[in-house]
Design brief:
β10 and β11 form a beta hairpin. Helix content is 37%, strand content 19%. The chain has a four-stranded antiparallel β-sheet with strand order 1-6-3-4, with no helix packed on it. The protein has 315 residues and is of the alpha+beta class. It is flat and about 60 Å long. InterPro entries: JmjC_dom, Znf_C5HC2.
Length: 315
């Protein structure tokens, strides 16, 4: 429809988006992710009544403000005219809107290259503050990527398989690799949260299918509980993130406990594997060929050596 428009928004989890266009041109406006807070402040300033009624109005994709209104507030703005057959790529947390100059057809896809992981983690923390549901488990995606990378490092170092896939994973590992940094940052966050727990709260082992059977989100802020979850004996089917564990009930703290998928030592070993330490690669690569059947030895905290165990020891 001529002059139909789409409102200001960012992609879920601050993902990249890529969309082609067929037909009449589409006029697109964009604000970079670094200036997203400035756009949000401008929107709240110009539409105070709407935001008072709906504090998270920008998540609804129903709010429009003219580019001139944003520019008057000092928000840097970019404009592009997308013709038939051309692609537009939006970056993490980049607000975009626009209108159609006539009949056209477009489709969009979200993509998550490795450099998005940092932005995705920021999105998850922001969603928690906004009490907004996530559409995917960022931690599951992050750890899944780490395990695939470790398997690639193992194949390179032990089997000498210099495939394109293995070399691609290697390029984002190492001490300064993008994937390594993302996992290391996440592990530090988890370690800090555990350090703030009362001493009487001893972590217990989380079942591997916990998030499938229990929803995997905090009852209060909807934070992803793939790695850690708090629970009280009085409410066995209710879970929270560590930040909202006190909101469960009035029970004594001794009735509460924490479920933990991996210990901090295990997560740090995974980081060392991504950094390239041989012993850690052998330790962590064991179950990456079967992502859904990884088992942890509760006594030793080590992955069971089921695949190539003899070759691994010799290496």
């Amino acid at each position: 429809m001529c002059f139909s428009s789409f409102c200001w928004h960012v992609e879920d989890h601050h993902l990249y988006s890529l969309f082609p266009n067929w037909g009449d041109p589409k006029v697109c406006y964009g604000v970079s992710g670094s200036h997203a807070p400035a756009l949000e402040r401008a929107m709240r300033k110009h539409l105070p009544n709407l935001f008072e009624e709906q504090p998270h109005l920008l998540n609804e994709l129903v709010t429009q403000l003219s580019p001139s209104g944003l520019k008057s507030e000092g928000v840097p703005l970019h404009r592009a005219v997308q013709h038939s057959g051309e692609f537009v790529l939006t970056f993490p947390r980049a607000y975009h809107s626009g209108f159609n100059c006539g009949f056209n057809c477009a489709e969009a896809v979200n993509v998550a290259p490795v450099d998005w992981l940092e932005h995705g983690q920021n999105a998850v923390e922001l969603y928690s503050k906004q009490c907004r549901k996530t559409s995917t488990s960022h931690d599951k995606l992050l750890l899944g990527s780490a395990r695939e990378a470790v398997q690639a490092l193992w194949e390179l170092s032990v089997l000498g398989k210099k495939t394109t896939r293995n070399m691609s994973w290697q390029s984002v590992c190492g001490k300064d690799g993008m994937l390594t940094r993302a996992v290391k940052t996440r592990v530090r966050m988890e370690e800090e949260r555990l350090d703030r727990l009362p001493i009487c709260l001893k972590p217990q082992k989380m079942e591997r299918d916990f998030d499938l059977n229990n929803g995997g989100e905090c009852f209060s802020c909807f934070y992803d509980l793939h790695l850690l979850a708090a629970r009280c004996k009085c409410s066995p089917d209710r879970f929270s993130c560590l930040k909202h564990a006190k909101l469960f009930c009035s029970c004594d703290i001794n009735h509460r406990y924490v479920l933990q998928l991996h210990t901090i030592n295990e997560l740090n070993m995974l980081v060392e594997a991504l950094e390239g330490r041989s012993e850690a690669i052998i330790w962590a690569s064991e179950d990456t060929t079967d992502m859904h059947t990884t088992r942890l030895d509760h006594e030793s905290g080590m992955f069971h050596k089921r695949i190539k165990s003899c070759d691994s020891r010799e290496t």
